[in-house]
């Protein structure tokens, strides 16, 4: 027996993962999962080994966004084998129970599900493991940011004041536990009209201004785009089919910062 050479259970979880990134938001519905999916696919496109954990237990959308609604992970040696698509290894509560079941879980059950995603899934070696966090700053989020060896967090928001109010709380949560915030992405920044002018539906530059006043790196603006929504619903991540659009440029830029 040599110290440090055993491969069983006492090993540090995720020790072969180089970067663990939380994608977080203040509110739900701002595009956090959409961004997390496209970030993961973009990183995989650079040749990196990437995993994505759907930690949004009460609203898992990764199965839909990857077109894997009926997929079930295999169990090998008591560990779950992540599903894999578009070069990304995936785990979601949506692969394990039907969504209506997870909705009624209380805190401890939700926490233990996420611990299982960390300790009992064969992630093997990864360059990046992305956590699609639940929105906001509830108990699950706090447990996660305290227990995971996070490299950093990326925050997604819309420019709207009601969304930004909750982003402040998320920023405080990460800072309290000394998790670096790698930057802020503004989603649904504007809608481009057929004549090329921009309609700032949710307010003008709210995310960018927030980033500046809170000392956060601004990673870019993603417009409201029917194709982003359709690609999410169809399970074909947007960045795969749209190089060079404003959205893909913003996502790829964020991928370079994480
Ligand atoms: P969250 O993870 O913050 O709850 P989602 O990523 O699930 O948000 O996005 C909520 C809805 O908005 C989804 O239907 C998604 O397809 C859509 N959506 C997200 N970003 C955009 C965008 N930039 N343009 C159009 N629709 C978007």
UniProtKB/TrEMBL annotation:
Belongs to the Mrp/NBP35 ATP-binding proteins family. This is Iron-sulfur cluster carrier protein. Keywords: ATP-binding, Hydrolase, Iron, Iron-sulfur, Metal-binding, Nucleotide-binding. Binds and transfers iron-sulfur (Fe-S) clusters to target apoproteins. Can hydrolyze ATP. Homodimer. The lineage of its organism: Bacteria, Pseudomonadati, Chlorobiota, Chlorobiia, Chlorobiales. It comes from Chlorobium ferrooxidans DSM 13031. The keyword RNA-binding does not apply. GO terms for biological process: iron-sulfur cluster assembly. ATP binds at residues 26-33. The keyword Oxidoreductase does not apply. GO terms for molecular function: 4 iron, 4 sulfur cluster binding; ATP binding; ATP hydrolysis activity; ATP-dependent FeS chaperone activity; metal ion binding. The chain holds residues 100 to 357 of 372 of the full protein.
